[in-house]
Known about the structure:
Elements: H1 6-13, H2 17-25, E1 34-35, E2 38-39, H3 45-57, H4 62-70, H5 80-112, H6 118-121, E3 122-124, E4 134-136
Antiparallel strand pairs: 1-2, 3-4
Amino acid sequence: MKDLAIGEVAERAGIKASAIRYYESIDLLPRPPRRSGQRQYDKSILNRLKIIEIAKSLDFTLDEIRLFFDGVSERSPPSDVWRNFASAKLQVIENQIARAEHLLEILKMGLNCECLSLSDCAQPDPAPKANKMFRRSI
């Protein structure tokens, strides 16, 4: 399997090479072996970078992302610290998903609505767990 240079990793991951170097400097990414002074990455680095970018998009801090990676090992079960962290983050992400699904329903409804404005047609139900997503304005 051919190793990848930092520029190729950056291009495939859609990030800057400087971000990769920074992630290495804060131990978010393992330092790769070098050949003729150049970093040589295994393709598996792309999956780790994808996880980093997804976690960042969900408002994980870099310290939290590091904890996420450090807490997962093939040699030992996750620590109590990692489990508590994962449990808290799971709740945050589930809340984000619920809000996104709610907005998705509003957008779908808006595509089928023939009212002049969205506020004329429906209002989001203030209770997100209610069976009925919208209530018609009277």
